[in-house]
Amino acid sequence: MGSYASMVRFHEGKLRNLRLPSAPSSLLLALDIDGTILEEGHPLSERLVQNVQYLRRVGVHICITTGRSVPATVPIVQQLGLGNTWIVSANGSLIGRYSTDTGYVLTNQYTFPVHEVLARVLDAMPDALIGVEDSPAGFRVLRPFPPGELRETIAVQSLEELGAKPVSRVVVRNPLMNNEEFATAVAKINLSGVQSAIGWRAWLDINPPGTSKAKGLQIVCKNLGVDSRHTLAIGDGANDIPLLQFVAYGVAMGNANPAVKHAADSTTLAVEDDGAAAVLEAICAILPGETVFESPSIAD
């Protein structure tokens, strides 16, 4: 797909053609985390953090839109240096604001009854690992997940306890299956009336009907007074498709699958090649005022 520098120039041209407003405070940028700004097993790249901090400093609104839970998202927000930002988490089921002064404050929460959904999942996959998220605190699970996964687990409970009240999300994981086997099993589950998306490593998210990252971003737009025609987003997963279709300029990562790329307006480099940073640097380039970097060498 070319070098980092050529990708910056490519997106700069695309952005200039959009004729976005010149005032940075009129823009809203939505960023997915895993597979977009963060490569598994690696820290955030220095130039990505530098770009994010510059954009925020000049007034561009930045919203983190993720399938992660709140406890798993806030550390990334802190590493990005975002002292005051909106977070759309759990694929749009939880929306809130984070600031260094108040911490995380939940503003919108969407829930749905899950007793029947849990039963259907276990009928199709009796050995599946299941968790439910019903608050920004974390997950309650039927059985512990593999080490390193779902670190936000706060309790192990019975199936009856998990389904006793409406929740914001159900996560389903089956480490005994590969992705293809998992997708085949999921296809046999009746998931009508809910939102669902298969993620990484035989992982399924099930959310309340009508929720999505896009719907969450609409709420953020309303709160910030930003026109949806002045929004941008970068993502890599199936749960990003509605978001990439909603914004004025949606960019799929180079590591995204064909369906995600098809939904986007454009594509960038893969996460391991700093594709998100290239898009952010292009946004920096179209804004009025001084450039973000003293030397262009960072874009080589």
What does this structure look like?
By secondary structure, this protein is α/β, with parallel strands linked by helices. The chain has 2 domains: 195 residues, HAD superfamily/HAD-like (Rossmann fold); 93 residues, Hypothetical Protein, Haloacid Dehalogenase-like Hydrolase, Chain: A, domain 2, CATH 3.30.1240.10. It is built from 10 helices and 14 strands. The relative contact order is 0.19.
Structural class: alpha/beta
Order of helices and strands: HEHEHEEEHEEEHEHEEHEHEHEH
Distance between the termini: 14 Å
Overall mean pLDDT stands at 94
CATH topology of the largest domain: Rossmann fold
The amount of beta strand, in percent, is: 15-25%
Protein name: HAD family phosphatase
InterPro entries: HAD-like_sf, HAD-SF_hydro_IIB, HAD_sf
GO molecular function: magnesium ion binding; phosphatase activity
Pfam families: Hydrolase_3
